[in-house]
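Check out a protein:
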Amino acid sequence: MVNLTIDATSILLALLSLLAIGTINHFHHDNQSEQIDQLTRQLSELQIQTDALKRTLNPDTTSERNVALAAHAKRSTQHDGGHNGRGLEDTGCSCSLPSGPTYASDFGVVGDAAADDGPALQAAIDSAAASESGGTVILPAGVFRTHEPLHIPGGVTLQGQGYGSSPLAIQFDAGGSTIAYCGPDYAVKLTGHAASLRDLAVYDWPYPAESYCENTQAAGGVLVEADATLIESVIVSNVFIYYFVGGTALSLVAKNNGGVPFGNYQNVRIRHAKTGIYLSAEEGSFVNTNSFLGGGISGGGFESCVYAEGPGACNDNKFYGMSIEPPDTDISHVYVTGSKTNIKLHDVRLEATGKSLDRPIVIIDDSSYGNVMNGILGHTHVQADLNRNPGIDLMSQKSVSLDPAPVNQFWNGAFKGWDSVNRILPGWNVGQTNTDITILDSSEALFPDHNVMSLDYKNWGGAFKLQSDKTLLTPGHDFATFGVYARSSVQGSITAVMRYTSGSIISSASHSGSGKWEFIGMSALYDKDSPYFYFSIVGDVDLTAPTLTFGQSPATPGASLMSSSGARMSGTLTTGVAPCTPPSSGYYWTCPKNEGNIFLMDMQGDPDKRIIRLNQPTADRFDRGTVITLMFTEAGTRVEHSGYIELKSGADFVSVPFSSITLMADTGGTWKEVSRNNYDASGTHTGSVAICFPPTSGYYWTC
């Protein structure tokens, strides 16, 4: 049989070589170089096919499974045609490849919960890591007792048969695979890029009773630790981590300038632990951009469920759709600390049915900022500086989140009122003379009612600083977002600049010089002790719609809003105008509320009327402080001084053609006069009110 195998293989190799040589000769004069390269690659692939066939026919093959897998590899390669641009093309590889998965049972694992399966299982993993067998180690159903950590290196997957029928306790049924760890260390350590753990349970094994295993608590279940190295793209999927009440179920740790990024943790179920998921980065190290999809943390014994800390960069780790619901935790369900640390919880369920209502379910240390949290907050509250964490949108009967009002603090964001003679622009400091300023035609406007200001930089005297003359800044805000639309053909012509919370000056990206409108801005923690915002201009540029808002919401250029705290306007204020008609009888008038501040008094042909009360019924009263103006086109209507309408000097107002009186609403449906305009044709003010004119010279007046 051996000779037959060798002869058959030799004949096949000879035939393949002759075929290749003949084909090369055929194309010798037609696209010679290209065809020879192509056929050389084909010959290399045919050699690989031959190797696979030899492994199939080799009588020393260790199992029928390997024979079948080698034959399958051969058929797959033939189906591809050997030159389809996929697979092994251009690799130059002529070595024998692993024939399929690595089966842990081939290395002697037992899975009866009594035998120590650690050495055999590690041997299977090491075989896969050395490419002596396939990179996926298949763990059969069973309970595999181990006393030392399993080390899963880069590129190797340990895959079981699921974790049984229950996510609440290991049932040892339904063909599940359980790693039953008995020792003081971590049960499983993933130590290289793309290491993977799938479809099994990891159990801090406590059996038999009163044994070493029962009296020894593990440090944790699964550890990804980058010590002076980088470990990325780890996958943990459909894994049940159970009963690590003396340690951490899942840890991602970076130290000595190491890093743990880009991991993917899907449907990880954690039940009973001291810490559920622990994220930690030493100074100079990082744990970031890892994703946790679904899964849940429940049970008892927890100090915290998700614990993230620095001082290194431990940030942008995202949790999607996870349920975190132990009845109580000693610290909190979620705890975040460190100036470079934050987490992002999206559509997460947080519940703590046994936690005292005065204890928070989430604690964000004051040093941490930029956390994002949304979903369901079932009990208690969040303890955090919400101004530093405006992305926290968890709300309950015990606490609410905060979103700073999106009010543009640049009160003249429309660039109105430019005085070119005196070089004055309301709301802005534009005193530097190294830039000529003009306001462009309205046809250039990017937003309605917003001027475009063109700056011609003269290239001397350093950068021109466009800075607001006053910005509403309060200790209640931590983040600031500001910027401006800019159009320029000069690269780097403008940047946004601010003083960061540390006191250092930071700047945004600059204009690309594209000649198009680009929004130049930034968002960061600002220095509240000495706030400083400006636009640095070192090239010709057109500007419009600057905006500064608090929080981390996107900028809102083109919006100049008013707020209940006050407003300054550079444009036109337009108010409503409505008619006001006499009552059917009597002297108690009611003008239409909520339809305007200016009322055209329609006397309906009979101006000889009296107004003693105005909107006095409770339902018709204006809010205190509302200012209205009554305008009269006819003479003879009298507004009488009374306890309901208090007029200046107690003098009644009597209308003349095109006169008016302005009143302010006070309490209880009463009014106070602000001003009046009711001159008669002779220039005398009616109602016993006189006008006082200045003296012809000096400062001595006589009324």
Summary: The first strand starts at residue 102 and ends at 103. Residues 1-33, 43-48, 50-91, 685-689 have pLDDT under 50 and may be disordered.
